[in-house]
């Protein structure tokens, strides 16, 4: 069994600008075909618009409020919301609240930095 507590995951800043903790992926477990990460954004912060050529993602909002843009659509998101991001879709999330935004991100296949492309 692979078990990793969030507080033991080393944070890093993604190319898009959020603070990420890799919870389970091929980089730290026996999981090979998907990944689970926790992401955080400070109040007022946003990720850079970006896409993934191969990876599909699901964001799940744990705390805070935000605006999520996927392709041409922007919607308000709150705790309990799940957002699907298909491969190739330009997307970004902006913290619209006064507290830190915390969300989970699942990726299939698993997240690889080399599959992140900033929008031009």
Structure characterization notes:
By secondary structure, the chain is mainly β. The protein has one domain: Jelly Rolls, CATH 2.60.120. 0% of the residues lie in helices and 48% in strands. It contains no helices and 11 strands. A 6-stranded antiparallel sheet has the order 1-2-3-10-5-8, with no helix packed on it. The protein has a 3-stranded antiparallel sheet with strand order 7-6-9, with no helix packed on it. Strand 1 and strand 2 form a beta hairpin. The radius of gyration is 13 Å and the shape is globular. The mean pLDDT is 96.
Short description:
This protein is an all-beta fold and 120 residues long. It is built from no helices and eleven strands. It is globular.
How much strand? Answer: over 45%
Low-confidence stretches: none
**CATH classification, class level:** Mainly Beta
Q: Into how many domains do the coordinates divide?
A: 1
Radius of gyration: 13 Å
Strand order of the largest sheet: 1-2-3-10-5-8
Please, how many helices?
Answer: 0
CATH fold topology: Jelly Rolls
Features:
120 residues, 3-stranded antiparallel sheet, 11 strands, Jelly Rolls, mainly beta, 6-stranded antiparallel sheet, single chain
Outline the secondary-structure elements.
Layout: E1 11-13, E2 19-24, E3 35-41, E4 50-52, E5 56-63, E6 66-70, E7 73-77, E8 82-85, E9 91-95, E10 101-108, E11 116-118
Antiparallel strand pairs: 1-2, 2-3, 3-10, 4-11, 5-8, 5-10, 6-7, 6-9
